[in-house]
Design goal:
The chain is an alpha/beta fold and 256 residues long. It contains six helices and 15 strands. Helix content is 22%, strand content 24%. A three-stranded mixed sheet has the order 2-1-15, covered by helices on one side. Strands 3-4-5 form a three-stranded mixed sheet, with helices on one face. Strands 6-7-8 form a three-stranded mixed sheet, with helices on one face. The chain is globular, with a radius of gyration of 17 Å. The termini are close together. The mean pLDDT is 98. The structure holds citrulline. Citrulline (CIR) binds next to loops.
């Protein structure tokens, strides 16, 4: 069960966020703020305490807090984002993490290692780490060494097509996994109950399990149906403005 969530409000420079889909247009800042508020409301309805950080105008992508840290039940790991325009985001996150974790269990990914939290998928005490354009082998090596120090485990997953591991695969507890595209046939996920996300709704493979309920992006009816049929109560949240800059539901929060 999660007790806490950290989010950060989008800043007005969200229109300058990194994107692989410029054809979707630029995010509407006012609408992004409204959608972010609805996201917070959805999280609160799952019984967690939500820490809402003020917007940081220095970093267009800073609402995607998930990439700055990985918060486990044993330790907090501050990342070193692979995107050069995002590296500084960790500076504001460190003091926030210190409110929840004591200094001796806060660890850091150090250059030349890079790692972004969107590449880390937690399945109990095992962490799958995507080797992506943002997360490099040295970052993965450091991350697994840190996990081992705390009695946790990790393993690498290669990916070619998507930005982050969790862009395409997400664990929703009870051995259930939402898989899309290149992850459907990965041998490492064979042991899970796989729910295949159709390609036209692949964006919505990024759902989040929140204390028994699953938050699903709005306007992806097939995915909503799949998750409901898997036995979950779902909460829909519209993330259209974040999608324009490759952001999904999980990217917008740190859950621990
Ligand atoms: C980026 O490219 O870094 C942002 N525009 C999107 C980050 C999405 N984060 C995530 O999937 N964890």
């Amino acid at each position: 069960m999660f007790k806490n969530v950290i989010v950060k409000k989008p800043c007005s420079r969200i229109t300058e966020g990194i994107t692989s889909s410029p054809e979707l247009g630029k995010p509407d800042y006012q609408l992004a703020l409204k959608q972010h508020e609805a996201y917070i409301k959805a999280l609160k309805s799952c019984g967690v305490e939500v820490t809402v950080l003020e917007a940081d105008e220095a970093y267009p992508d800073s609402c995607f807090v998930e990439d700055t840290a990985v918060l486990t039940r044993k330790c907090a790991i501050i990342t070193n984002p692979g995107a050069s325009t995002r590296k500084g985001e960790i500076e504001e996150m460190i003091p926030v993490i210190k409110k929840f974790y004591s200094e001796d269990c806060i660890e850091y990914i150090k250059a030349p290692g890079t790692l972004e939290g969107g590449d880390v998928m937690m399945v109990g005490d095992h962490f799958y780490i995507g080797r992506s354009a943002r997360t490099n082998p040295e970052g993965i090596r450091q991350f697994i060494a840190i996990l081992k120090k705390y009695g946790l485990n990790g393993s690498e997953v290669t990916l070619e097509k998507v930005l982050h591991l969790k862009t395409g695969v997400n664990y929703i507890e009870n051995n259930n996994m939402l898989v899309s595209g290149e992850f459907i046939d990965k041998p490492e996920f064979e042991k899970y109950n796989k729910y295949i996300i159709p390609p036209e709704e692949s964006y919505a493979a990024n759902c989040i399990w929140m204390n028994g309920k699953v938050i699903v992006p709005a306007n992806f009816p097939k995915v909503a149906d799949i998750v409901k049929k898997a036995g979950y109560e779902i909460i829909l949240v519209d993330t259209s403005e974040f999608r324009k800059i490759d952001g999904g539901l999980s990217c917008l929060s740190l859950r621990f």
